[in-house]
């Protein structure tokens, strides 16, 4: 059974880049049977899909964040990463990594989430 | 993008009662690609239903989903103590995937 675990700084300064890593266990990130995605949840609010990556390297992201988002995979370390640049306080949220089996699909496996605060 | 509106915002019920949660889409959801998630405080969301009416692995049969097009429903037939949580719907029929704002099921 695939398990996911997020890691990264809990505090990022405004205008800097938020960088998170999701470590994958129980299966290879290079598996053709999974897409790997990022979802965030501002405090007290709902969920927002950020973007996803397939083992082929194809990436997809929500239009509102597309210009600031980079998602990449590191097959040697079996992990994938999120980079969100030019952050503001509005990017403060719990960030989850999650997996889905098709490009358009429900998210069936989630990490526990990591809180990221944008503040000087 | 498709906007999902969930109602009610909060549902106050007692254990053993039936819960009916609604999710309405701003346009038709392709292939009924609609999922439901449960989120307990401080926890990650858990997938309950996909394809509008298919239970995810390990989800008890007191949870059921229905609907098509723009109107979807999640029903919990008899609420157990662990069912008091926030529930989100998500459409994945078109990109970007979007979520509703959530319905909180609280103990009356």
Description of the molecule:
The complex is a heterodimer of chains A (120) and B (108). Chain A has 120 residues and is mainly beta. Chain A has strands at residues 3-7, 11-12, 18-25, 35-41, 48-54, 59-61, 69-74, 79-84, 93-100, 109-110, 114-118. Chain A has no helices and eleven strands. In chain A, a hairpin with a 6-residue loop joins strand 4 and strand 5. Chain B has 108 residues and is mainly beta. Chain B is 0% helix and 49% strand. Chain B is built from no helices and eleven strands. Chain B has strands spanning 4-7, 10-13, 19-25, 34-39, 46-50, 54-55, 63-68, 71-76, 86-91, 98-99, 103-107. In chain B, the strands form two sheets. In chain B, strands 2, 4, 5, 6, 9, 10 and 11 form a seven-stranded mixed sheet that branches. Chain B has a four-stranded antiparallel sheet with strand order 1-3-8-7, with no helix packed on it. Chain B is globular, with a radius of gyration of 13 Å. The model of chain B has no long low-confidence stretch (mean pLDDT 97). The A-B interface holds A 45-49, 60-63, 96, 100, 103-108, 110-113 and B 1, 33, 35, 37, 43-47, 50, 56, 88, 90, 92-102.
Q: What is the residue-mean pLDDT of chain B, rounded to a whole number?
A: 97
Number of strands of chain A: 11
Low-confidence stretches of chain A: none
Order of helices and strands of chain A: EEEEEEEEEEE
How much strand content do the residues of chain B show? over 45%
Task: Give the terminus-to-terminus CA distance of chain B.
Answer: 35 Å
